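User: My collaborator sent over this chain with a note saying "see what the structure looks like." That's all I know about it. Can you take a look?
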Amino acid sequence: MGGFFVRKMAGAAAATAQLQKLFPLLVVADGVQWNRGHYVPVLATAVVANVVSLAFYASYLEDFAAAKASELPLLMMALLSIEALVIGIYLFKQQREHQRAGPVPKVATAMTEGKMPASVPSRIVSKTVAIVSSTIAVLAGRDLFFPGTIFELVPRDDVYLEWTGSLIHSPPEGSPESREHGLESPLYVGDKFVSQLMALNLLILCLYKFVTAFGFVRYGSDGSGMVKSKLIWQVQAIGDAALLFVMRLVVSAAKTASLDLRWHVMALAYETFILGMYGFL
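Assistant: Without extra context I'll predict from the sequence alone. Here is the result:
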């Protein structure tokens, strides 16, 4: 069941990462304008996401080639490269045009009480993301860069790693799992790839939320920061809902392995609610 959880979470996170680029372009919300730079945070983060995804696939090319399955990853790398290049060129040209034309005339709007141009778009969203997504980012970073490493401060972390199979494909050196599964761990490279792919895409989703939460997007004197942030919050709310659905499916199964995911579900549900409320209302 742990393998099912990892595969489904990897799929949901990867789908949301791609949806984040498509949804704002296909479903244009009221007040969103290209010439006012409303799409810049989404597009600039998308370039970063594509570059790190390229690096990840490149790190597994040797394994794909050994399994005679390198065609699809190479195609995906080519598509990600083209997309990143096109978006990068657009952002560069827009910046040059903006410098030549001067500042875009600002629309006079009344400032929301307690807001300043340098304020974050929403303090509540920022605090929620800081608590929930930062925790997700720490654990996902471990799964990506140090798979199989047990965090002693995280309750039942060893059970989580055992349940998801990390102690089989990446057993810690000197551990009982290393003595038991050390020789056969290279045979589980596919499971390791899926686990790290899940972690990578969770980090990408966290990055989008961090852009709006930690000051990379400001409220602005015309309130444009809210418009920019909503383009991210809406999709991230949908993505969190998909992740929440997958987690809810495995709560009972995880409990049989002495892994209680109810607190994880509640935390993610709260973030989903906050992002949805501020993104769609």
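A starting point for your reply to your collaborator: Residues 224-256 form the longest helix (33 residues).
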